[in-house]
Every structure is written in structure tokens, then in C-alpha cells.
Amino acid sequence: MPMLLIKGSFHISAKSQPDGDTIGFIPDYVGEWKLVHGGRPLHPGADGHINVRLEAIDTLETHYPGANEHNEHQPLTYAHAAADELLGWLGFQNIERHEDETVSVTPDSVPGYILTRGGDSKGRCVSLVGRGTPPGASGYEIDVDEKLLKKTANYHLLEKGLAYPTYYKGFPGDLRRILTDAVHAAQAAMPPANGLWPYDVTVSGAKIAGMHSITNDVVILPKLFRRLKDYFDLGNDALDCLPSFLAGADDVFKIQGDRKEYRGLHHILEITNGQTLRLTHPAEDLTFDEK
Question: What was the pLDDT predicted at 28?
Fold first, then answer.
């Protein structure tokens, strides 16, 4: 599939809070942001910076604010492992993470490139992320095949077992299959990879007894974590009203092999004994619409 290639550098500032799937990027020629299509205009900062959201993956949250702007995190062992792996893979060194989730690194920028189809609702540029010399001319579309995809951070993090696959409408099926194969290989690795899969309980079932469970105890799909965090922020302690809450959250998605469009994660949620919940389909079976 053709994607726009933009050459530039990944940046870490004193206030940056990079996680495993988001990082700042500045093109060598800032005007190339205007070439990014997709229906959502991008608005760079004064230095040309825009946050890049890694396409097709989702890593554990390090500081999710939610509706009430109070940050919560998922189990930090795996959240930080993904974030540090991304930084190290890009070429940053001497990574030091602080209590407020800012980081210190050397150098403060490294060369690289992005391959993008457009922006998201939060003003980020959704991209495949590459390091070093780009595989083509900046400002032009380039065909992304298996060989190129496997050179991206997106593929690397899935291969290492540090990210969940999270697919949105329009992402090409051939690239999706390559990423899903990497996920299944990481899940089946013996001995298990040093990633999240040995601890993931999204489909097997997670016992949830409030906010502490999702911030410190259980490893689950980040999208489900975010919905639960918002739900608990309303003062809910039990899960009784969660299906109704999820119906209003309006996540729109399809399930592989099913042409029906669903609205709300409650359609694939099971709750047993009032405390144990699970999704009935793994992340790689779902295709979401970008809100």
C-alpha cells in the first residue's frame, strides 16, 4: 500500500512523556506536514513538532488522563519496557525515566522517518516508524511491502511481545496479516518472550476489584483499560453498570469474518461472578473506526 514518506528526526524535549506508541517527530522540511491527507489536518508546534502515533499497535498506558485529567497507568513493568524499547530501537541512549513520566536521553534527537496515511482525532500523525536513512525520497508516496514493514518500530514492538495489535479501518489486509503473524509468534514463543503475553488476561479473564486492579494487577488490552479507568472515575466500584457505560462509549468496530458493525465493547464483553471480565475476541480479530 502506498504511504507518504517523511524524513526528519524524533525528538525528546524536557517535557516529553513518550510511551511505547507515541513520540515527537519534526520533518527536515516542516512544510511536508501539509502533504499528509486523511481528512484530519495536522497542526505542528512552533518548532515543527507533531506527536506521531504508531499505527496498528497499542502499548500499556504509562499516564492516561481520561475525562477527569487524573493520570493512571497500567502495570508499569510492561508499560515502561515498551516505551524504553522504542526509544532504544530509535537510537536514544542513557534513558532515564522520571516520576512524572518525562525522560532524559542522549542525544535529544535521532534521525528517522515516518510512513503515514493521515492523522487521528487527537491531532497526532498515525504512522509506521523507521530509523536511520529512509527507503525513498521524502515528500513522496512509497509502496510499503513486507520487507519494509519488518524494518519498522511497529513490527519490532509486536515481535518483541511488548504491544497489542490494534487495527483501524483502512489499514491494508496484507500488512495486517504480517503483523498478526508476529503477534502469534510472540505468543507461542518457548520459552516465553520477555513481553506482556505470558501475563495478558484480556481473553482468559481478569478479576477486577476497582482501579487498583487495572493499574497494578492485571495486564489487559489498553483500550479496555481506558474504558475501565473512565468508568471508575465516575465513582463506580462494581462492574454491574459497565455494559451500559460501554454502550455509551461508542467504540465502533467489526469482527473478522463478520460483516456486522458493532457499537460498544459490551457486545464482546463477558462478566462472571460480578468481578471477572473478559473480551470474547482477541485484539487481532477487531477492526475499529477512528472517531
Answer: 98
